[in-house]
């Protein structure tokens, strides 16, 4: 939603038009603001609305027309942990991808990859892992205003990190009914269980007997890692053994959520859980953030 539309955001409406094979339905709906700051021209909002059965088209209606909203049916295939990756844009570090996909698979994770663009060889590699059941590749649409000059509306300037918060919330809603836990991270964030042989068992230990916990926040500890430039020299074991803690952390952590208790999320942990819920911070484990890449021949 654009904040400079001439209407105060508190009274702006979201109007949705739904169609199926036999009828259509127009409805206005309230919404919740997701973006917690005013630094961007466009902010992310969350809305729920009941539409028609067997819906074929969903459109967002404005004063001067309508825009079709692409949608997919949610997944019902049970998964222990879904790893929602932030949208990848002009991505070329296949080494980070290989490292992440094998670590998360090893401990029970499944990757949902939001892709804007990447080099062709990396895309071909991703497709092979998708075929093997390690991940799902999902095209992430870039916001575009084809008839408006960038000096007036520029999505790269006015939108937060390729609409990252919307991607995370989209991923949450896709797997809300099928995943036991969901996390929202970047490709250079790695979580390795320390107290259990799988993600689910570790999360259950952390939460233990605590009631009404919506999510667990893990710190991000910065690491340096040696990375081979060429595929013939790449070794997962060598990359793992080269990890060196830089004795520093990112200012904000990453969350692992119980999807039953949240409906949307921002790019960092914020109190977006349902009423009566809470969260805890883990002191026993942290995400490995691949902060510094040291290239080796």
UniProtKB/TrEMBL annotation:
Name one matching Pfam family.
Answer: Glyco_transf_92
Q: What is its EC number?
A: 2.4.1.-
Q: Which InterPro entries match?
A: Glyco_transf_92, GTase_92
Top-level taxonomic group: Eukaryota
Q: One GO CC term of this entry?
A: membrane
- Report the locations given in the UniProt record: Membrane
Q: Which UniProt keywords apply?
A: Glycosyltransferase, Membrane, Transferase, Transmembrane, Transmembrane helix
This protein's membrane topology, according to the annotation, is: Single-pass membrane protein
UniProt enzyme class: transferase
* Span of the signal peptide: none
Could you say which protein family the record assigns here?
A: Belongs to the glycosyltransferase 92 family.
Please report the name of this protein according to its UniProt entry: Glycosyltransferase family 92 protein
């Amino acid at each position: 939603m654009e904040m400079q539309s001439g209407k105060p955001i508190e009274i702006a409406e979201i109007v949705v038009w739904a169609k199926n094979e036999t009828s259509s339905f127009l409805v206005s709906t309230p919404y919740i603001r997701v973006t917690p700051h005013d630094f961007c021209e466009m902010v992310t909002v969350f809305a729920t609305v009941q539409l028609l059965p067997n819906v074929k088209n969903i459109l967002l209606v404005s004063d001067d027309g309508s825009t079709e909203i692409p949608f997919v049916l949610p997944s019902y295939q049970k998964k222990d942990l879904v790893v929602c990756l932030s949208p990848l844009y002009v991505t070329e570090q296949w080494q980070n991808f290989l490292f992440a996909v094998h670590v998360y698979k090893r401990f029970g994770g499944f990757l949902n990859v939001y892709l804007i663009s990447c080099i062709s060889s990396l895309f071909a590699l991703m497709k092979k892992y998708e075929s093997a059941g390690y991940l799902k590749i999902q095209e992430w649409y870039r916001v575009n205003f084809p008839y408006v000059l960038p000096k007036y509306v520029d999505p790269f300037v006015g939108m937060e990190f390729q609409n990252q918060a919307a991607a995370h919330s989209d991923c949450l809603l896709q797997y809300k009914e099928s995943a036991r836990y969901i996390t929202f991270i970047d490709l250079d964030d790695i979580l390795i269980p320390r107290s259990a042989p799988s993600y689910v068992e570790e999360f259950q230990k952390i939460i233990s007997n605590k009631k009404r916990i919506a999510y667990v926040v893990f710190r991000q500890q910065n690491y340096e890692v040696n990375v081979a430039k060429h595929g013939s020299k790449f070794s997962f074991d060598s990359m793992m053994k080269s990890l060196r803690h830089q004795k520093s952390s990112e200012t904000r952590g990453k969350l692992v959520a119980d999807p039953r208790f949240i409906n949307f999320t921002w790019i960092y942990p914020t109190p977006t859980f349902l009423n009566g819920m809470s969260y805890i911070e883990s002191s026993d484990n942290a995400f490995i953030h691949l902060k510094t890449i040291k290239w080796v021949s």
